[in-house]
Q: What sequence folds into this?
């Protein structure tokens, strides 16, 4: 711990930040005031301290005036602490002999009374100058980065991130919990606004993943535990049994053909339940890997132990293994990319739209399958009761922009609704009505696509739909679904009878996002999506170093944005790996061993599991590489034996005393 | 558990059949209630429009008495239910309203601390008593009786306290437990016209007609309600020509408690079935014909 050295020589600098600070605080008065405080040798005000000349000023003053402490009063440390530490170092001092005083966010931006703001600035500055006298020289520690990467989730985000990393020569473990990679994108028919076929652009990337020598693709697998810290994560993967050998199966599907169930009779998840499959199945023709699997809930043999097992005879490669067990695999990786995707909003939660009540009300994802040439109807649009719809209503914002469900805009629904409107009209010739609150088409070529739909004669009605029912008032309405909506452009309530309704359901966080968040020790926002470190400046980082986000697990977004974000996440991982090691802030907690009573009360409190117990010494031990400097243990320790660099008692008490001495 | 009971004015007047049948059903289920002493008008929607603070104070007086008496407060009338719940909400959220109302209550020596729970019988029957207990008491199941369950607006909106605000199902489940067949009824929470039947009769009668016509179209033998005003509007304006394009629709409109009582084998007279303007007898006879057949 630093002791107050006999000769403390402080250099003080106050920044105008243009008029951001100088407009509200009399900076020259503060500089003059600070110049008279004990230990202050130099006190200056300057237009922009963060500029090169501003930094050079600090460095040359250190040399010229033999300064050994620096205080800068300017903006938030989040923005420029590093800048001024660097300037302090350029002058030949340890960078931690620096203290920053935030007089912008904490003062000039939130006050209007110039005299009072100036007085407050003086208090803040006085505290900073007193505190810096207690600063000690600290060293940043370095941690080695394991070069392998874990990518969780095999949708387009995980696929793109994996390929980027693998092409850069890194070893990637891609873990996907469903039997195939491809995610939601594989279910889509076309993509907006170009209308290129989703499978045509996705499946080549899927096979690249499969064939890439640097990618270890494990489908039907889940992460069950994560331990360690940036550069050194230890991960457990559970590989669920497919009852098929992935090595031996070539995807000939003879076993499916020969299954004792002659007809498919189990719900086909990939086709959203619009089709049936057998107990032994492959999710879709281009599934990757091209390996079948057996659902133990449906398979007669696995359920009852009694079956003719015709599949065994059909397989000439002996790939079927009925006694296959799940496998737990341990991995060591240095960085992790989470690309766990989203779930669609469950429209049962908005019963006024009749999903599950009226068979001809569909979700948008069901329609994606229905218009798909490889879908359950071969792309022929028929309703559940077997009719060809003459009129179709598409309801926007189902489960989005709604106080009762989700407040946020799901971002993709307007555009996919336009795409589905086009496809439905093209496939069925039906009259298509879009009911929207606002059309949101910001994106390259998106507004043009909207314009194209207007030209094609798709109907657009502005208003949030109140309800969908079979309440017929006239003969013409009998047997139809009636969409009731206040048309806010025309100014009256419409009743629009249609044969088919499409609910443009919003995007939600995965149902187990909270469990995943806890496992990876990252944050979630109020809407349940994973939280980025900074909404603007660190959109793919998380609050846990070495873990990055890609795609819809962070927020709803479309394919181009997802791919861009996945690339960014891969680049962030690469930057860490190629640096080989990472510098860590020295603001970590440490234990004064002789004072530690071994009560262990700090251990469960640590949110980063950085504290362990040394059974031989009977003392707590803090792993500095894991510690994030949150201070929880410091405050909780009953014997006061935990202290924290840069937040020592002397430093904080000095600061508090000076702030209050002005009162 | 003993419940406080706030009948409100309707259940002593036009909605007497509701009170008669409710009390019979509660007795059959051995649910104890105690009517609030010296209760007053809830103020309904009318007083709110005249003077909000006075209206809240009026409602809060009942809440204060209920709190003093103890137990949850059973409130069968949809309008009373909404006014009491709304008053609680405003007293909780708006300190200005709370202070003014408290001053009023203090003047007559009453206190209200916001503790009493206002509960609709549908809520109590579904969540406290349970469908199994309701089913166990059934003597003559309502087999073959097709019922359109009509909730009206006030009991689920804007405060959806015990059921979904657009698609409530508690009455459906209770009557199903009594053996009735619930028809799909998309208008279950649509407006009956409220007091419009008295002021703009043409408009109110048309809204009522729509509700009856749709219930009939969906195959209902009768409509079950939980609100005295809904019941009155739907029952009383059936002869009123609702406009030149519409054929009048005759359909009995009863309280859900009357149907429960029938299933419990209670007499039609005790259940106030004779008070309905449009007799439910033919629909009920039709049912017994079905049961005996």
A:
């Amino acid at each position: 711990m630093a002791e107050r050295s006999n000769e403390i020589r402080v250099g003080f600098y106050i920044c105008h930040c243009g008029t951001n600070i100088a407009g509200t605080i009399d900076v020259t008065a503060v500089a003059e005031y600070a110049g008279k405080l004990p230990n202050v040798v130099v006190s200056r005000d300057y237009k922009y301290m963060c500029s090169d000349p501003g930094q050079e000023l600090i460095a040359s003053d250190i040399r010229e005036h033999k300064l050994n402490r620096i205080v800068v009063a300017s903006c938030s440390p989040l923005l420029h602490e590093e800048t001024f530490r660097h300037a302090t170092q350029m002058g030949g001092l340890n960078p931690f002999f620096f203290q920053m005083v935030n007089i912008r966010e904490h003062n000039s931006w939130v006050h209007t009374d110039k005299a009072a703001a100036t007085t407050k600035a003086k208090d803040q500055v006085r505290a900073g100058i007193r505190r810096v006298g207690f600063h000690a020289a600290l060293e940043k520690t370095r941690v080695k980065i394991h070069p392998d990467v874990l990518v969780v989730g095999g949708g387009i985000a995980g696929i793109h991130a994996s390929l980027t990393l693998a092409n850069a020569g890194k070893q990637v473990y891609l873990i996907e919990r469903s039997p195939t990679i491809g995610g939601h994108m594989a279910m889509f028919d076309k993509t907006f606004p170009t209308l290129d076929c989703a499978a045509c652009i996705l499946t080549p990337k899927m096979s690249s993943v499969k064939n890439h020598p640097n990618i270890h693709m494990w489908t039907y697998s889940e992460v069950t535990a994560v331990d360690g810290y940036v550069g050194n994560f230890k991960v457990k993967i559970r590989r669920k049994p497919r009852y098929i050998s992935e090595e031996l199966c070539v995807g000939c599907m003879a076993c499916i053909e020969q299954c004792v169930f002659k007809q498919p009779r189990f719900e086909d998840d990939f086709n959203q339940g619009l089709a049936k499959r057998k107990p032994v199945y492959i999710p879709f023709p281009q599934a990757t890997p091209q390996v079948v699997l057996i659902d133990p809930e449906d398979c007669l043999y696995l359920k009852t132990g009694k079956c003719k097992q015709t599949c065994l005879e059909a397989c000439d490669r002996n790939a079927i293994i009925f006694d296959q067990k799940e496998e737990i695999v341990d991995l060591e990786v240095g960085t992790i990319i989470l690309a766990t995707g989203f779930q669609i909003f469950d429209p049962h939660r908005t019963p006024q739209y009749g999903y599950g009540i009226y068979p001809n009300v569909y979700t948008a994802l069901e329609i994606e399958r229905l218009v798909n040439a490889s879908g359950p109807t071969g792309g022929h649009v028929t309703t559940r009761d077997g009719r060809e719809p003459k009129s179709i209503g598409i309801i926007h914002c189902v489960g989005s922009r709604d106080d009762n469900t989700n407040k946020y805009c799901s971002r993709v629904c307007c555009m996919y609704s336009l795409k589905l409107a086009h496809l439905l009209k093209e496939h069925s010739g039906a009259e298509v009505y879009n009911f929207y609150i606002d059309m949101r088409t910001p994106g390259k070529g998106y507004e043009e696509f909207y314009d194209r739909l207007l030209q094609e004669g798709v109907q657009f009605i502005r208003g949030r739909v109140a309800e969908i029912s079979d309440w017929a008032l006239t003969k013409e309405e009998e047997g139809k679904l009636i969409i009731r909506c206040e048309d806010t452009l025309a100014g009256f309530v419409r009743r629009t009878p249609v044969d088919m309704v499409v609910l443009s359901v919003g995007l939600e966080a995965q149902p187990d996002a909270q469990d995943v968040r806890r496992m990876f020790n990252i944050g979630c926002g109020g809407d349940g999506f994973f939280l980025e470190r900074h909404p603007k400046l660190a959109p793919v980082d998380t609050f846990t170093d070495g873990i990055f986000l890609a795609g819809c697990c962070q927020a709803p977004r479309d394919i181009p944005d997802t791919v861009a974000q996945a690339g960014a996440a891969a680049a962030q991982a690469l930057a860490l790996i190629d640096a080989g090691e990472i510098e860590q802030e020295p603001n970590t907690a440490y234990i004064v061993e002789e004072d530690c009573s071994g009560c262990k009360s700090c251990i469960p409190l640590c949110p980063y599991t950085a504290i362990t117990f040394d059974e031989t010494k009977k003392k707590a031990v803090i792993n500095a590489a894991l510690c994030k400097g949150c201070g929880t243990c410091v405050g909780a320790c009953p014997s006061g034996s935990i202290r924290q660099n840069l937040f020592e008692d002397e430093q904080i008490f000095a600061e508090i005393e000076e702030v209050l001495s002005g009162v | 558990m003993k419940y406080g009971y706030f009948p409100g004015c309707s259940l002593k007047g036009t909605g007497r059949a509701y009170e008669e049948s409710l009390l019979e059903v509660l007795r059959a289920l051995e649910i104890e209630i105690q009517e609030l002493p010296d209760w007053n008008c809830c103020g309904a929607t009318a007083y709110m429009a005249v003077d909000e603070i006075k209206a809240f104070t009026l409602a809060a007086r009942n809440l204060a008495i209920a709190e003093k008496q103890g137990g949850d407060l059973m409130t069968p009338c949809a309008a009373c239910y909404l006014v009491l719940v709304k008053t609680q909400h405003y007293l909780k959220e708006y300190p200005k309203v709370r202070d003014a109302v408290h001053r009023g209550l203090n003047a007559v020596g009453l206190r209200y601390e916001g503790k009493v729970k206002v509960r609709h019988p549908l809520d109590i029957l579904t969540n406290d008593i349970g469908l199994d207990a309701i089913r166990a008491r059934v003597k003559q199941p309502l087999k073959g009786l097709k019922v359109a369950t009509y909730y009206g607006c006030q009991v689920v909106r804007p405060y959806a306290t015990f059921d979904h605000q657009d698609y409530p199902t508690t009455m459906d489940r209770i009557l199903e437990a009594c053996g009735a067949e619930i028809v799909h009824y998309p208008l279950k929470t649509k407006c009956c016209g409220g007091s419009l039947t008295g002021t703009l009769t043409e408009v109110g009668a048309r809204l009522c007609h729509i509700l009856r016509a749709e219930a009939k179209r969906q195959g209902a033998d009768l409509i079950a309600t939980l609100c005295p005003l809904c019941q009155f509007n739907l029952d009383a304006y059936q002869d009123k020509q609702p406009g030149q394009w519409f054929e009048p629709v005759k359909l009995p409109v009863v309280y859900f408690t009357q149907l429960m009582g029938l299933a419990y084998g209670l007499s039609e007279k005790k259940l106030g079935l004779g008070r309905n303007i449009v007799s439910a007898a033919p629909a009920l006879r039709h049912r017994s014909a079905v049961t005996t057949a």
